[in-house]
Structure formats: structure tokens, C-alpha cells
Amino acid sequence: MSFYDWQDKNLLLKLHVQPRAKENSIVGIYNDNLKLKIKSPPVENKANKEIASYLAKEFSVTKSNVELISGQLNRDKKFLVKGVNVLPEWFKDLTE
Is 56:62 a contact under the CB 8 Å cutoff? Predict the structure, then answer.
């Protein structure tokens, strides 16, 4: 399985997260997960909230359309992005 799975217009993403980075960015693929660097520290759910905001912006959906499915306290997480109509360039590049 790759780092993503389509469920109709919803996109399930498998992430490997590196918190406390200098900037929010997609790094590439790491062990069949999408590696994401995030600025927030992994305390009090701050990193998860920032990941949701980042994914919402990248896929042009509202924050309420991004849901943490699993991995709340782990680096490996699954997020569901609902109602995806726009794919960012990095996603297109990684799935070609």
C-alpha cells in the first residue's frame, strides 16, 4: 500500500511526522508514509492541529474536512481529507 488511499472523494493519508521543524513542509516518502515536517511541538495536540490546518490549506478544503483517524500520540498518523477537488503539485509529483 502507498501513502494514500482514495475513498470516493475522500483521501486517506498515511503520515510520518517530524515535529519541531523550522518550517511546515512535505519531505517525501518514508516507509510507505508521506513524511511531513511540522513546526509545532508534539504537546497538548498542537502538532495534530497544525497538521490538520496544513493539509486543509494544501488540499483547499476547510479545517473541518480534515480528520485525524489514528496515531494521535504517535509519529505515524492517518488523516482523512474529505471532499478533495484540488491536488497540490507535490502530491501529483509523488503519485506519478
Answer: yes
Phi and psi for 88 in degrees, rounded to 5? Answer: -70, 160
- Within 1-96, residue ranges assigned H as helices are 46-58, 89-95
Could you list the pLDDT tens digit for every one of the 96 residues in the chain?
599 999 999 999 999 999 999 999 999 999 999 999 999 999 999 999 999 999 999 999 999 999 999 999 999 999 999 999 999 999 999 988
Best CA proximity match to 15, nearest among 44, 46, 51, 39? 51
Q: Which residue in this structure is represented by grid cell 498518523?
A: 77
Number of domains in the chain: 1
Q: Which domain holds residue 74?
A: 4-95
CATH of the domain at 62: 3.30.1200.10
